[in-house]
Amino acid sequence: MNDGNMTTNSVEAEYANIANRNAWPLVYQKIGRECQNYTYTCIEAKKPQNKPLNRYRDVNPYDHSRIILTRCERDYINANLVKMERANRKYILTQGPLAFTVSHFWLMVWEQHSRAILMLNKIIEKNEIKCHWYWPHGIGAEHKMALTDVQLTVEQLSEEDCSYYSTRVFRIQDMESGESREVIQFHYTTWPDFGVPSSPGAFLQYLTRVRASGALEPDVGPAIVHCSAGIGRSGTFCLVDSCLVIIEKEGEQSVNIQEILLEMRKDRMGLIQTPDQLRFSYQAVIEGAKRLDPNWTEEPKMEESIYSTVAETEEEAPPPPPPRGESLARPPARPLPAIPASTSLGNLACEFREESSDEGPGTPPPADSSQSSDDQQASSADDEDDEPPPSVPESGETSETQRPDLRRRKNRELADRVSAMKRRARNAEKWHNLKRSLYKPLTITFGIIIAGILVYSYVKH
């Protein structure tokens, strides 16, 4: 896609050139056009029995790389094995579980011998459920989850809060054989929808922690990487990690970021969802390569509390973005905002005068009132969109004493909305469990009745 291999310096030059021309949307669009030549199929994902298992109708796993479940009523799950041979890396990219695919998710973790789950989203974002809560709600055996349909139990052993991400350790046990394994979840809690982390440095600290666990090594099962759809934030993580491994193995003259992204998109569609995420990937690769220098000195620790502040002051959700297929081919309407610079990036970060909305408003399809909130999400076409900026008073008349009261009121309103959504999610899960529990006895009863009618008719005649 680019002429020749690029050195790290040429990556920096390419980055500066694209940024100065504000050409990230054009570069991103060019990648999208290249992917239109792919001829991979998604036949299994579009079968009627599998359609409800997809969170988004336009994010489907390719048939040639999809994960196949072996100990389940259906072998389908919306997940792909993404391989980058040059980096000796394998990742499983998947959607955030739905209420009725939680057991499928844990079965995949078990059957693929994965050591870690990289969760890059929050449960609720923009007042919408983006992922079902799929792990135990507390630590200890009393909170253990029993997934009887796949014969597994999941128990949470510990939890650690690391400021902008959390880690949790789970024990998965096979109810048939008694075998058990431990899996660690790295939950990045401040990466905004359809956006990027606050700085490359903070992201690289998270990546370093994941690598230190050994979860990305070739001698263990592929790490499970997911956000809401499993393509935007998940693709960004895998692209940066693979590029840095290649630089470390083959030297600074070996990386072509766009070619590596195109290679990864052969295994799962739509990786990297916005020009902003592509730009952030360049920044993280450039800074990560600098950190490989033995003379590099660590900068002060970078926090990401800015996004939690945005979430607390958010008044209302923005309009949903259009279908993901359109986002792959259409540039944003306005220039992208600059990503907060990190000190080791020097003059690479370019300032732009306007903020942008990566996606214009779209119209979601009407949802059946009998569907649960997760079902409605499965039929929607939205994915990850930018966090809105915090609201600013139009005049300077708001006093310092009024602001804390206003913030507390907004926090209470947001907490009430979140609590209501959680209640709806729990009710939906109870309804699905009830339907599953009644299905088999009702089927048997109707079968007996029909058989009795047939026997009676035969005897009578």
UniProtKB/TrEMBL annotation:
Key words of the record: Hydrolase, Membrane, Phosphoprotein, Protein phosphatase, Transmembrane, Transmembrane helix
Region (Disordered): 310-421
Low complexity biased stretches: 368-380
Tyrosine-protein phosphatase domain segment(s): 11-288
Transmembrane segments: 438-459
Keyword Protease: no
Domain of life: Eukaryota
Compartment list: Endomembrane system
Sequence ranges assigned to domain Tyrosine specific protein phosphatases in this UniProt record: 201-279
EC identifiers of the protein: 3.1.3.48
PROSITE patterns: TYR_PHOSPHATASE_1, TYR_PHOSPHATASE_2, TYR_PHOSPHATASE_PTP
UniProt xrefs under Pfam families: Y_phosphatase
Main location group: membrane
Keyword Lipoprotein: no
PANTHER family, alphabetized: TYROSINE-PROTEIN PHOSPHATASE NON-RECEPTOR TYPE 61F (PTHR46047:SF3)
Family membership: Belongs to the protein-tyrosine phosphatase family. Non-receptor class 1 subfamily.
Protein name as annotated: protein-tyrosine-phosphatase
Organism in which the protein naturally occurs: Chilo suppressalis
